[in-house]
Amino acid sequence: MRVYASSSAKIRAIAEASARISGKAYKCFHACAGLFNTKMTTCEECKGECCRKLAFHIQEPKSMIDFEDMKWYLYHEGCILYIDNEGDWLVQVPVKCAKLDRNGRCSIYDRRPPICRLSKVEECEKNIDEMKVVFRTVKDLENYMRKKGIL
After folding, report:
1. Residue 37, pLDDT score
2. Do 48 and 100 touch, CB atoms closer than 8 A?
3. Which residue positions in the chain have pLDDT lower than 70?
4. Among 29, 73, 82, 111, who pairs with 15 as Cys (CB 3.0-4.6 Å)?
5. Terminal Cα-to-Cα distance of the chain (whole angstroms)
């Protein structure tokens, strides 16, 4: 029997197992959080983490040239690449929304864009770990390439 350091670790393990099956870890996490009475982080508590970066889907690299092109992102300060729980590749760019005030609150909350309005706390990165593989440096990417037999 596996022992977990906390109920949150247990929930995360259940969510990760669910993600391998369904690709929707946040649904399992939300359901499991209710079972274990685990408090989810709210927007108020995180001070707009999702408003401090942009993440874009990118094409999965298939060739050595594609992987070499991936290094370009990592040469930019603060940019990271990651593979999410669904196997999609993304580039994350650190850039703060111009509409955040000094306290990390949205200054146009009542008029915020639909992408902000439709975001759900259950899907917040503070409540699920959506990054299955993270590349912060070119070395991280090269290690992955070696592991996959590409380099």
Report:
1. 46
2. yes
3. 1-38
4. 29
5. 38
Q: Considering only CA atoms, which of 126, 123, 129, 125 is closest in space to residue 14?
A: 129
What is the structure's pLDDT at 10?
A: 52
Please choose, from the candidates 130, 116, 84, 104, the residue with its C-alpha nearest in 3D space to the C-alpha of residue 44. Answer: 104
Residue type, 135: F
DSSP secondary-structure letter at 115?
H
Which pLDDT score is estimated for 35?
45
Residue 82 host element (H or E): strand 80-84
Q: Tokens 């590349």 map to which residue?
A: 135
3-state helix, strand, coil in the chain (%, to 5): 45, 15, 40
Secondary structure element (H or E) that encloses residue 84, with its range = strand 80-84
CA proximity to 121, closest of 50, 41, 46: 41
Average confidence score pLDDT of the chain: 80
Q: Tell me: the pLDDT tens digits for 80-101?
A: 999 999 999 999 999 999 999 9
- Is residue 134 within 8 A of residue 140, CB to CB? The reply is yes
3-state secondary structure 116-135: HHCCCHHHCCCCCCCEEEEE
